[in-house]
Amino acid sequence: MAGKSRRRSRSRRKPGREMPLNRGAMLEREGVQKKEMMSKKEMMQKKEQKKKGGCLSFFVGICLILLAFSCGMFFGWYRWGRDIGSKVDLAKIEVPDWITQDFIRENIYSRPATSRYTVRDIVVHYVANPGKTAAQNRSYFDGLADQKPGDNTESASSHFIIGLDGEIIQCIPLKEFAYTSNYRNIDTISIECCHPDESGEFTEATYTSLVKLTAWLCDELKISRSQVIRHYDVSGKSCPKYFVDHEEAWETFKKDVEEFDGRY
Question: What's the CA gap between 116 and 120, in Å, rounded?
Answer without folding.
Answer: 11
